[in-house]
């Protein structure tokens, strides 16, 4: 299997540190608001990647943090006149509810920054001892220039970075630094009402970047297989994580860096973000949108490509899911009925070919679009067999299992998908029975009327010697 590594800018053969096991760290949300669909995209992308690894038989140790203290948390708590921890608690619960609705598997562990203060202080001390960090007026900063490979992940050299750093507007902070490139590991409390912890340097709180270095190394080890996050985290967040972790441990931090693309919105395809005020929260969207449709919409675009969010694109995802649903309903129906099985080598060959194409596509850096295209090609072949008097039960049973597993990788539960049609099914069964009765009574006009009514619902009725059979068009 090949994975695109942001650090080397190439697709590399994936080799885990321990056979059969994968350590994966994904940067989690700052819990000061409901997640917007740009955040959901990252969560869904890495859940889909995780599910594919699990499908391939790996045991995935998946850690994702909650940033429950930073400037945004402090400002929002102040605005709402509640404590930072009450704010965090509220939005952590909201996050769990939203991601559960999107059928995201819970992480193995969700460490919280505020529970890791002791470990963070210890980590910063290590960096000071090694000469990579220094205290200045109660803050602690990282000596960026001392880390030789700084900028490698985001392909920037020190000159470019210097130009960027000089644009910083926080003059007071710049004065405390030895170098404009340095970044904060520990921030001294600025106002008495600010949440703060005692440390060797000041009453204060950790910077954002340090928490991920601490949690990743603490819970997954000095070197991990995969570190993920949105493309916007490449610089400076992940660059800083590498600098902190590798300086502290002296070991390689991450083997494969994976970054998901943005969600864009509107005709100009602007990046969706809280700062641009063009975001849609998952919490709001799920009031009007089937979570399975949103999940499928997001999971069906290659994780590195941008997703353009629009109601048309959501509608398209809904239509594709409907096609899956139709085939799955017919599969369940025909596998249960009493028709005699008839082997179809052509259908069996098509299923085997789809299986190979699916794995080949997914093994190529999770090319979900090619993988789905392979499945879409199979559906009409299955549908054709399903409409015959004698189906290939063995082949169709295998196809049913494959479709269930494959949709599962995309976070779609076929059970849930079929449940949503259950109500309509009851109505169909009732109408089909009425029509059969009408035929027995030779009430042809009534029978035709019922057939037309079913046709309008997208149901074709067939009269066979074994009785009346129905299927979705
Ligand atoms: Zn992070």
From TrEMBL:
Motif, 'HIGH' region: chain positions: 29-39
**Which is one GO molecular function term here?**
cysteine-tRNA ligase activity
Q: Which InterPro entries match?
A: Cys-tRNA-ligase, Cys-tRNA-synt_Ia_DALR, Cys-tRNA/MSH_ligase, CysS_C, Rossmann-like_a/b/a_fold, tRNA-synt_1_cat_dom, tRNAsynth_Ia_anticodon-bd
Q: Report if keyword Cytoplasm is assigned.
A: yes
Cofactor binding, per record = Binds 1 zinc ion per subunit.
Cofactor(s) it depends on: Zn(2+)
> Where is the motif 'KMSKS' region annotated in this sequence?
271-275
Q: So where does ATP get bound?
A: 274
What is a single Pfam family found in this protein's UniProt entry? CysS_C
Domain Cysteinyl-tRNA synthetase class Ia DALR, residue spans: 357-418
Q: Does the keyword Aminoacyl-tRNA synthetase apply?
A: yes
Q: What reaction(s) does this enzyme catalyze?
A: tRNA(Cys) + L-cysteine + ATP = L-cysteinyl-tRNA(Cys) + AMP + diphosphate
Q: Where is the protein situated, by its record's location annotation?
A: Cytoplasm
Q: Which UniProt keywords apply?
A: Aminoacyl-tRNA synthetase, ATP-binding, Cytoplasm, Ligase, Metal-binding, Nucleotide-binding, Protein biosynthesis, Zinc
Q: What is its EC number?
A: 6.1.1.16
Q: Where on this chain does Zn(2+) bind?
A: 27, 212, 237, 241
Which major enzyme category is it? ligase
Primary residence:
cytoplasm
Q: How does it assemble?
A: Monomer.
Q: Which family does it belong to?
A: Belongs to the class-I aminoacyl-tRNA synthetase family.
Would you tell me the protein name for this molecule? Cysteine--tRNA ligase
Species whose genome carries this gene: Lactobacillus bombicola
What gene codes for this chain? cysS
